[in-house]
Amino acid sequence: MNFKTVLLLFVALIIMGCKQQVNKKENVNNSKTEIVKTEKISDYLNDWVDAINNNDFPAIEKIYASNAIKIVSVDSIIESSSQIANYYGVNSNKITSIESIFKVEANKKKRINYEIISYKTEDLKEYIQVVIWRLENGYVIREFEFTERRSQEAKKVVMNSIVERRKLWMELCNANNAENLVKQLYTVNTIYYNHKPIIRGFDNLIKEYDYMNNSNYSLHLQPLKLEIVNANFAYEIGQCSGGYKGKYIIVWKKQPEGNWKVHIDSNI
Fold this sequence. Notes:
By secondary structure, the chain is of the alpha+beta class. 36% of the residues lie in helices and 39% in strands. It has helices at 3-39, 43-53, 57-63, 81-91, 159-174, 178-185, 202-208, and strands spanning 64-73, 76-78, 95-107, 112-121, 126-136, 139-149, 186-193, 199-200, 219-228, 233-242, 247-254, 260-267. The strands form two sheets. It has a six-stranded mixed beta sheet. Strands 8-7-12-11-10-9 form a six-stranded mixed beta sheet. It starts with a helix and ends with a strand. The relative contact order is 0.11.
């Protein structure tokens, strides 16, 4: 074998070695990219998806507070972790993707967060969910959730119509007439949640809001996130100031006559 042949073989070996190193680097980079994609979602969301997709009753039950509330509709409210696990065991499609749209600490002392989540299922439907999370004994558990299907009609909703309804809410609240506020701005079968037995309907909510009748009471609502879900539902998470300084959740529902009213109200 002459010198020229040896030299060519040596160069070829060097080129092959370089290609192998490049391929190794590409594989490492690709692996890192996949890890980053999965780590964008918190472990507690991944755990929830895994439990539902595996139809794991004990795992689903563990993710929810024992007295957790899942609102399916005004006529279907599930009020325990075991019943919620049963619901998902019967009604769920496998979740193919999930993302957090908005998350905020609602109560540091009670270790409670509010979150709006989007997830898609194997039947190609998208759902938007508003969730109240609580840290308990080292675990992040769900204590409240409401879900509606996303639709393209959401793009047609004019946000200003909800803005005007929020302004009216503050005006009526600050007029210190709880009955007038509830009857004008809330749905007939409205739902109110505040770690107590869930409150439903006009009369019960008017009693609950009796403190608003105090002439010294006032409240301002500052939305942090308004998520239009479909033509009839929108989720709002915001900050209160005045008589109450915590966070709030409002689920707005469009009425047949075209006005938006509060369908679900919650604060911690």
